[in-house]
Amino acid sequence: MAIRNPMRDKSCIVGVGHSGCFRDAGVPGGTLVARACLQAINDAGLEPSDVDGIITSPMPGIMGYDTINCNYLVEMLGLPGVRWWIDHHVGGVPGLGSVCMAALAVSSGLCDVALACRLNWRPKDKGYGHVMSNRAQGVDAFLNPYGYGVFPQKFSSWYMRYVHEFGVKREQLGTYVVQSRKNALLNDKPIVAPRQAITMDDYLNARMISDPMNLLDCDFPCDGAAAVIVTTPERAKSLKQKPVYISAVATGQGPHPDFVFWDDYTVMAAHWAAKDIWERAGIARKDINFQQIYDGFAPFIFYWMEALGFAKRGEAPEFVGSGALKPDGILPTNLNGGQLNEGRLHALGHTVEATLQLQGRAGARQLKKADAAVVTGGGLSVAAIMVLHR
Question: How many domains does the chain have?
Answer without folding.
Answer: 1
